[in-house]
Amino acid sequence: MKEFIRVMKALSDPNRVKILKMLNRRELCVCEIQAGLGLAQPTVSKHLKILEDAGLVQKRKEGLWVNYRLGDGDSSPYAATLLGNLKHWLNDDPEISAILAQVPDLNRDAICSRQ
What we know:
This protein is of the alpha+beta class. It has one domain: Orthogonal Bundle (Arc Repressor Mutant, subunit A), CATH 1.10.10.10. The protein has helices at residues 2-10, 14-25, 30-37, 41-53, 77-86, 94-102, 108-114; strands at 28-29, 57-62, 65-70. It has a 3-stranded antiparallel beta sheet with strand order 1-3-2. The protein starts with a helix and ends with a helix. GO terms for molecular function: DNA binding; DNA-binding transcription factor activity. Pfam families: HTH_5.
């Protein structure tokens, strides 16, 4: 039951749901997620850690960058089921739609050069 509760708690925050919806579009680094949501870097990192612990996201190191993508569901049947369904959920929500419209334009090189 602990595994189920961990996944459900990870999905209980609207920003974490938004992150998952963004990652459903493509792999992103922290700065791209930060720019898309308008959140501080430590806040985004904390959300990603919670999602990773629940088996909902995975990270991949690429040089100095850490890229995040949706989990494959191997670590938890609850995470796998929710990730599979989340692809179809909330797509008509105006807030989610606005965030997803930004994802193609998020470019870490451009974002990091401004910071």
